[in-house]
Design brief:
2 copies of one chain form a homodimer. The first copy, chain A, has 110 residues and is of the alpha+beta class. In chain A, 26% of the residues lie in helices and 38% in strands.
Amino acid sequence: MEQTTTEEKSKDRSGWNTVYIGRQKPVMNYVLATLTCLNNSPNVILKARGAAISLAVDVAQITMHRFVQGVKVSNVKIDTEQMQSEEGGTRNVSTIEIELTTAGEPEAQA
Amino acid sequence: MEQTTTEEKSKDRSGWNTVYIGRQKPVMNYVLATLTCLNNSPNVILKARGAAISLAVDVAQITMHRFVQGVKVSNVKIDTEQMQSEEGGTRNVSTIEIELTTAGEPEAQA
């Protein structure tokens, strides 16, 4: 409810919806954000880094198996990001991007 | 050193090497197991579930960026597994499988 702005979801330049997954909120909040995005777009990217990576996989699996039929994982990318550490140096953090696609949407039937 | 048997690495029926990643050991142990597998096989699968998923991504990234040149992620699969919980019921756990391949091996050049 409060502060669901750029933190939780935002629209990419490319028109894709992106859900940034952190560890501050319950998993279901992110599932809800993902479902909202899937309502507006046939594609959603879930992004997470560090320890939130496993949460992102949970969000994808819960969305696919419990809420929306016909959603599938179209792509999974893993990468490394350089982050500024508090002591001044940089440290590497792993990242994940999970693309969900509503394949075979009713569009075709209409 | 102790007990690096089926727990840490094993050979699949298909001949692929698999490294199971947990949270009991330091990340570098799993990186070492991955490097050992890559010495014997051009393909390695890193498997993890639950909170160890983010560790598996770390292991893949550290292996690729710090130790072996020319290794790349050929596939990432995410899935759900049913686990028996201690109270008797079942619960769902997310899993990940990261395939690493030593692409561009001398094979192609020979």
